[in-house]
Amino acid sequence: MKNKKKIEINPKNIEIYEKYLRSCYIKSRDTIDTTYKVYKSNMHQFLEYLRDLENNRYIISDSTIKNFYDIWERYANECIQKGNNNRTINNKRTAISTFYDWCEKRDIIKYNPFRKIDTLKITSNDLRRESYFLTQKQIWEINYHMEKDTKNFDIQDRILFNLFLDSVGRISAIHSLKISQLKIEENIFENVREKEGYIVSIIFFNETKELIKKWFEIRKEKNIESDFLFLTYYKDEYKQMTKETIRNRVKKMGKIIGIKSFYPHSIRKTIINIISSIGNISDGAILANHKDSKVTSEYYIKHQKQNDIKNRLIDLRIKAGL
Predict the structure, then answer these.
(1) What are the tens digits of pLDDT across the range 237-281?
(2) Secondary structure class of 237 (helix, strand, coil)
(3) Dihedral of CA 68/34/91/230: which sign?
(4) How many separate domains does the chain show?
(5) For 29-48, how does the pLDDT look when each residue is reduced to its tens digit (9 = 90+)?
(6) Angle, to 10 degrees, between the axis of helix 35-53 and the axis of helix 68-81?
(7) Among the listed ranges 133-142, 172-181, 241-250, 280-289, which one has the minimum average pLDDT value?
(8) Which backbone phi and psi does 52 adopt, to 5 degrees?
(9) Domain range holding 286?
């Protein structure tokens, strides 16, 4: 029995969305590889939903706009079933609503249907993933295990982990790194576009440099030609590694030390916490490229247990002669 051919996303949906992206490129070149890349991913998921569960309907048809309230509620419920929190669903909403804004301005549709749909309320649970702050021993253990277990971890895994540690870079920056941005003898990637279009430098140290050099040797042996640093072999060619693939690789690293929900942001938080503990909050904020140290303090510093606070106060009182 032959497998049924999978139905493609409605080509009219692809066409109108590509037209929207071209317009965005003209208007906002600085964020086309960051913000709009995320928007495109979220929109693609919605178009897949329309294909699979809404009869592949045209996203801007009169019928779709008229019935959009119900369509969106069904999609939001589908997202909840997959484990998405309210913040994630609101991010998807923004991506799709921005597209409808564009359509309305060009008189392609009469109105943006999201005008009648409220955003979901964000709670503290939606804002925070469970935080993991690695110890120095755990950092060593992950590196040691990946070096020895070459069957399950490759050179790119080791570079990813150590580059996240060295640079405290966000996944958006690490994912987009290019060899043309690299000054290897200076241990730096220059002019890297990060969150909200900010240009940052990604630094690394000598251990990571040696891993990058080793990766270059492997690429040369395999005649791999690509400007992107991190690659995936897919359908007989090397392509830029996706953020999702990077997240999955990091998640597998977490399992080495028994953490099932380990993310690139966990590595970022770990090193910011360590630097802030040794130095101060301002050091951590500078390292993290935070405009306000309050962000560093609230989301990136491991909160002390009451007993630790009490012992610290006792120590300070003794030193003060109280």
Answers:
(1) 999 998 889 999 999 999 999 988 888 878 877 777 666 666 544
(2) strand
(3) positive
(4) 2
(5) 666 666 777 888 899 999 99
(6) 100
(7) 280-289
(8) -80, -35
(9) 136-299
Same domain, 44 and 192: no
The count of other CB atoms within 10 Å of the CB of residue 99 is 24
Same domain, residue pair 283 and 181: yes
CB neighbours of residue 224 within 10 Å = 14
Cα–Cα distance list, 308 to 134, 210, 298 (Å): 18, 39, 18
Same domain, 142 and 242: yes
Residue 182, beta-bridge partner list: 189
Its pTM stands at 0.58
Residue that terminates a domain, selected from 127, 157, 172? 127
155 with 271, same domain? yes
Specify the pLDDT at position 30. 65
Residues 238 and 163 in one domain: yes
Q: CA-CA distance, 285 to 303, in Å (whole number)?
A: 16
Q: Would you say how long the chain is, in residues? A: 322
Q: Which amino acid is at 155?
A: I
State the pLDDT confidence band at 172, using cuts at 50, 70 and 90: confident
* Distance, CA of 57 to CA of 113 (rounded, Å): 15
Q: Which of 72, 95, 127 is the last residue of a domain?
A: 127
pLDDT at 305 over 60: no
d(CA 183, CA 191): 11
